[in-house]
Design brief:
The protein is of the alpha/beta class. The protein contains 15 helices and 15 strands.
Length: about 400
C-alpha cells in the first residue's frame, strides 16, 4: 500500500457573498476531488490545538502526526533547517519577510503594510536586497540568511523569544503598534527601509508596476527544534514535495526525503504537473509515503483575491490531484490518498483562522459509493470528525 497526502495550504474558507454564499472550495470546479469524495470518505478535522496560533507551522506538524503542543518550538527554526543553518541551543531564529510598506509618510511607524510578500518577489531579486541589508546590519550577534522568494531568516545569538506580529495579519494597517518592543530589532527594521527604499532592484520593480520589497519584517521567533524521525514514528519511508522552506524544514527535522521540483515557487503559477510527476516517481522508487504541499491557495487568500483563490483550487484539482491519481492507477499498486487544507485562509480577513477543515480520504482498494462532494459544507454534514489533528495520519495508515 502506498500513501499520499496532498495539502492545499489555506484552501478552506468562509462563505462569501460574491460567490453566492459558497466558499471558494465549494464554488470551484473540482471534478477530481468530487469523484474521489463520491468513492471515499469526507469529514472535518481540528488541526490547530486550542490556544495555539493558526499557522502553517503548527497545522502541518499536526497533519504529519506531530502534536504541536509537544514539538512546536517556533516557525523560523523549522525554516532554518531547510536553509541549512546549524542552530546552537542558544540561538533564536526569526523569519525575515521582505515586505512592501507605503512610502508617502515621514515616519517609519506611520507607514502601512501593503503586501507581506512584495508581489511574491523572486528569490534572485530578494537575494540582492538581503545582501544590501546584510552589509549594513549584520553583526556577530545578528546574522541574515537567504531563503525563498520573500521568506528569509535572521539568527539572533543568545537572543530571546519575542512576541512578534505576523505581517499578513495586519495588511493595510499602520505598523507602529505592531513593531517589536526590542529596540535593536525595531531599529534594524527601520534601517532596512532606508537601505532598500531606493535600491536599484526596487526602482526597477516600481518601473514595472511591481510592489517594491522596501523593508524587513521580523516575526515567528523560536528556539532550535527537537523533532524525531518520521520513519521511526510511522514505519513508513517518507518524502516531502514543497516550494516553501517551512515544509522543507519540517521534512529535514523528521528525516524525510526533500524533493525539489523545477518551477515550484509557492505561487499561483507553480509547477503543479511537476509536483504530481515527482510524487508518483518517488513512490515508484521505493518510498511508502509522499506529502505534497501547495502554497498557492494560501497566498491568494492573503491577497484577498476570490478569483485567484478559486483558480488555485481548480489548478490543484485538475493539474495535480488528477495527475497523481492517474499515475498511481497506472502503476496498479493500491494506495490511500488524503486531501485537505492545513487551516483556513479566509478571503474576508486575508489571514489564517482556527476553524476545523475538511478532509477527503480515498482508498483505491476500498471504493465506496455515495453522493458526497468535497467542500466544507458537505464535510461538516458527513458527521465524521477528528478532534486531534495529529491523529489523522494514523487514520490514513489504518493504525
Amino acid at each position: 500500500m502506498k500513501y499520499v497526502v496532498i495539502l492545499g495550504d489555506g484552501m478552506a474558507d468562509r462563505p462569501l457573498e460574491e460567490l453566492g454564499g459558497m466558499t471558494p472550495l465549494e464554488y470551484a470546479k473540482t471534478p477530481t476531488m468530487d469523484a474521489l469524495a463520491a468513492e471515499g470518505e469526507i469529514g472535518m478535522v481540528h488541526t490547530i490545538p486550542d490556544g495555539m496560533k493558526p499557522g502553517s507551522d503548527t497545522a502541518n506538524l499536526s497533519v504529519l502526526g506531530y502534536d504541536p503542543r509537544k514539538y512546536y518550538s517556533g516557525r523560523s527554526p523549522l525554516e532554518a533547517l531547510s536553509i541549512g543553518v546549524d542552530m546552537k541551543d542558544t540561538d533564536i531564529a526569526l523569519r525575515c519577510n521582505l515586505v512592501t510598506l507605503s512610502e508617502e509618510e515621514d515616519a517609519y511607524e506611520d507607514r502601512k503594510i501593503l503586501d507581506h510578500s512584495s508581489g511574491e518577489i523572486s528569490t534572485e531579486e530578494a537575494a540582492q536586497l538581503l545582501e544590501a541589508v546584510r552589509k549594513e546590519l549584520e553583526t556577530d550577534t545578528y546574522r541574515f540568511y537567504v531563503g525563498t522568494s520573500y521568506r528569509h531568516l535572521l539568527i539572533w545569538d543568545k537572543g530571546q523569544v519575542e512576541e512578534l506580529t505576523q505581517p499578513h495579519d495586519v495588511l493595510g494597517q499602520t505598523i507602529g503598534q505592531y513593531l517589536p518592543e526590542d529596540k535593536i530589532l525595531r531599529d534594524m527594521m527601520e534601517k532596512s527601509y532606508e537601505i532598500l527604499v531606493n535600491h536599484p532592484v526596487n526602482i526597477e520593480r516600481k518601473k514595472k508596476g511591481l510592489n517594491p520589497a522596501n523593508s524587513c519584517w521580523f516575526w515567528g521567533a523560536g528556539t532550535k527544534p527537537a523533532l524525531f524521525s518520521f520513519g521511526e514514528k510511522t514505519g513508513k519511508k517518507g518524502a516531502m514535495i514543497s516550494a516553501v522552506d517551512l515544509l522543507k524544514g519540517i521534512a529535514v527535522g523528521t528525516s524525510m526525503k526533500v524533493i525539489t521540483v523545477d518551477g515550484a515557487n509557492g505561487g499561483l503559477d507553480t509547477n503543479y504537473e511537476g509536483k504530481a510527476h515527482a510524487a508518483v516517481e518517488v513512490l515508484k522508487d521505493g518510498y511508502d509515503f509522499v506529502y505534497v504541499h501547495v502554497e498557492a491557495p494560501d497566498e491568494m487568500g492573503h491577497q484577498g483575491s476570490v478569483e485567484k483563490k478559486v483558480r488555485a483550487i481548480e489548478y490543484l484539482d485538475q493539474r495535480l490531484i488528477a495527475e497523481v491519481k492517474k499515475g498511481l492507477d497506472e502503476e496498479g499498486e493500491p494506495y490511500r490518498m488524503l486531501i485537505l487544507p492545513d487551516h483556513p485562509t479566509s478571503i474576508c480577513i486575508r489571514t489564517h483562522s482556527s476553524e476545523n477543515v475538511p478532509y477527503l480520504l480515498y482508498d483505491s482498494s476500498d471504493v465506496q459509493h455515495n453522493d458526497w462532494h468535497y467542500n466544507e459544507k458537505e464535510a461538516q454534514g458527513s458527521g465524521k470528525f477528528v478532534a486531534r489533528g495529529h491523529e489523522l495520519i494514523d487514520y490514513l495508515f489504518e493504525k
